[in-house]
Specification:
mainly alpha
Length: 109
């Protein structure tokens, strides 16, 4: 946080997650509101600790991709409108998994 703190206005509090997000102008976090930035911060800590314990970044990277996608939706008004539009339940078709015999037939057996 130290390197970004110099870029903050003098009255900004760099210990607040929303302020820290705004400091990184190229960051996707600027698209999130303060509650979401705080949620991101909590998840980042949890996933980072998990990565250290497991010795893999897989879950952490997945979480970061999810947050980046969320911010991308917020920054794209057309996509956000489609995602939040009312759904007509008559347009939804329920899909069931194939029966075992259908799977076997498709596999040629």
């Amino acid at each position: 946080m130290g390197r970004h703190a110099d870029a903050l206005p003098r009255e900004a509090d760099p210990t607040q997650p929303s302020t820290a997000a705004a400091a990184a102008s190229d960051s996707y976090l600027v698209a999130l509101d303060s509650d979401e930035v705080e949620e991101f911060s909590r998840e980042l800590l949890a996933y980072t600790l998990d990565a250290a314990q497991r010795g893999t970044l897989e879950n952490l990277e997945g979480n970061l991709r999810a947050w980046r996608s969320t911010a991308g939706i917020y920054e794209s008004p057309d996509v956000l409108a489609q995602m939040t539009a009312d759904l007509d339940l008559a347009d939804i078709t329920e899909v069931f998994p194939p029966a075992e015999r259908e799977v076997a037939a498709a596999a040629g057996g």
